[in-house]
Every structure is written in structure tokens, then in C-alpha cells.
Amino acid sequence: MSVTTPFTVTYSEGSQGFPSFYSYIPDWIVGMNQYLYTFKGGNLFRHNTNETRNQFYGEVYQSQITSIFNEAPLQNKIFKTLNLEGDDAWKATIISDLQTTGLIEASYFEKKEAAWFAFVRNNGPTGANTVQSEWELRSLNGIASSLSVAGVGVAVNVNFATSVNIGSIISVGDNLYYATPPTGTQTATPIFAGAVTQINVDLPNGLNQIVVDTTAVGATPPPNQTDYFLFIKNPIAESHGILGHFAEFTLQLPILVTSGTNTAVLANNLVDTTAGTDFIADGILIGDIVKNTTTSTQANITVVAATQLTLDADIFTATPQNYEVLSSRKSELFAVESEIMKSFP
User: Which of 279, 260, 263 shows the shortest CA–CA distance to 318?
Assistant: First the structure.
């Protein structure tokens, strides 16, 4: 076993095991009179005596919990929703033995009374990057062979016979694929056609149509009139969940690094030239999260400068709009705990 991140492990004589793992590193640790005491740098600390959470020796750690749903372990299941009880919604990532792409952003949760509810997004690769496993694990929905294909660019009309039921599952924003029907024992790999922009159904007037934008990145317009069409739900909107015998979930409560109000509009950027603003000095890193709290949208940071953050989405289109920057850095506690526990019988 190789562990590259330092951690603290404690041994319990009562349980004859190692029940607790800590991300912080004290020089000495001891329990006495119902309190936990540690020494660090010649200073004595008594824990759990104030309202400050996850801060040890001046360093802030991210809240993170990892556990497993494993009811009926021999049965294959679909994990579709998550219910949290607490004051805040946490970001969730979920993996199983068959799929590793379950995701729920904290902003996706809806609060009902004292609980938070959200469905699991299957965040596997889509568009031109869809991999074979996504076809095999129930993420793909078939429609039918087309009657005709007309148009170019952002408005390609895929027409179906009126006897075809396009269905109510497909919606605007989903990814459309096609394949030339194989013959005999041949197989065909679906090809990305683009994003669905319209669904037009008026059967009495002979209209049964899907409009697709074939200018999407990696899209290839359908070359034949009678290709077979399929679709994958938009990963933000779909509710298929993830498939597996068990589901390991990790909950993270992001750390608020800084907040403020933008001072200018620049596509795919957050600009704040307010006096005293310094994103570099704040310790903001690539991969951290920016939330536009005025419009309830968010994006990931790709470039950090003193007064400007480059984002992977254009979420600031006006001024003034309020923002929060949240750390995406994870405490190493649970990753290390998992690795350690696997080493014991």
C-alpha cells in the first residue's frame, strides 16, 4: 500500500481497531475528561469547544462524508434519488460497480420542509464523446428509422412516418444519434447528429418531426434519409439514475472562499476590479466553483488572475450581479480511510 497524503489514525483498545482517521496532523493527541486535546507547534488545543467547524491549526478542511448503499447486494438496481436531512444541500457523487458517473450538484437539490431532495444525474460522456458503456447501460433510447431528412446546419428536420410514436421522453436539449441499419449479423455504432432544438408532432396534418442542430461540437449530419435514430437524455435533465449492485456515495459541503459583485461583463469570465479584490491572494484554484447568486447559475474556473476568473460557461451577462467562489478541494480523510480499510481483513 502506498499513501502519499499524511493523515492521523487513532487506535481504540475497546474496539480493538482503528475507528477514526483525521486529515489534520497534530504533534500529540490524547483524550482526557471527555475532551480531545492535541499539541501542535508547542501549543495546546482543546477540541469541540466552539462553533467553528473543520478548522484545525488555522487550516480549513472541507466537510466530506462517504458511505455505501448496499441493500440486497445480489440484485442489480437503479439508484435514482437522494434525500438529505440537514440545514444545507451537499454536492453528491455516486459510483457503482457498473457506472461511475452519478452526480448531484448542491444547487440541484430542492428543499421540502427540513429535507433536501434531488434525482441522480448520469453524468457520463455524451455528444460525440459517448463511450460504448453508455449504449449498453440503458442510457440510450431508440426512436425509429426516419422517413426523410431535410435542411442543413442549425435546423435539420428529421421526419418520421405518422405511425411512429416519437414518445414523451425525448425533449429539447437531448442528444440525437443515428446509425445506418445493419444487415445480417453486422453491427453499427451510433453517430452523434447534434442537439434536439424542436419536437413537432401534428399527426392529423402529417407532421412527426425532430429538429436537430448539427453544428454542435463533434456532430455529423445524417447522410441517409432512412437512418435509425436514437437519443440520450440531457445529463442535467435526465432521471435514469445509475445502474449497479451497490452505490458508493460521497457528500461534499464546499467551502466559501470569497464573495462579491462583478464590475464588468466579459464572456466566460467573472470580473471584479473592486479595491482589495485579489483572487490569487485568496488562494482560488483552477477547478473551484463560481456561483452567480443573482441568477442561480454556476461554472468551473479554468484560469485564475488577480481580478478576473475565466470560466467554462458564460454565467455573468450583466452588472451588477453577486457571486460566491467555492472551493472544490476535497479533504483527503475519506479517500485515505477507504484505502486503509481495504488493507485490513
Answer: 263
